[in-house]
Give the backbone structure.
Amino acid sequence: MIDQVYSTSLTGAGFRFFEFKLVVNLIEKGLTDGEIRKKVLEENLFQEKASSTKRSLPYILNRARVLDNQLRQYILNEPTQMAKQVNFYAIMKTDLLFYEFMDEVIKSKVQDNDLIYERKDINIFFKEKSEANEQIADWSESTLKRLKSSYNRLLLEMGYLIELISIDLIPLQVDDMLRDHLVRIGDKKYVEAMEG
């Protein structure tokens, strides 16, 4: 379930909150992964081209499957902002590289009270990762560009940035109930990556 290898999946399955919530709801109804795939594709539940759905669905499904019952309830029954934080947590939990970005770049900036986020921050992160990892070093420039864009969009969706061109980094306050639950299940590192 949890990626231990670096992935470019976020280029095709960014925040996707609407789709994520929809899949969580189908899981709650007791559908298997196969049934969810069939239903989503046949009924065009993501309201997009089938090729886009086929590309993003495995990642969204994987993301939804890492949630325990309590987290699924938060998605379906709590205010949107908290549900979005659960989605963001699930993205980090299933995407090692994005978690490392949050942990090494965003968390560090918030802890140091350095609330200016510039393009060089993400560029340095990817440069260091590609120097340390053969797999990332083999990714094309266009893949890296799309991935950086996806990461920045995730920051925007979660409220760290007001707009994509903004350089003001806004610290995130994780919902108390969510924080307590994540700490209780041993996932405090994700809370720290989100809050700094």
Q: What stands out?
A: Residues 95-195 form one domain. The chain has a mean pLDDT of 94. The chain is about 65% helix and 0% strand.
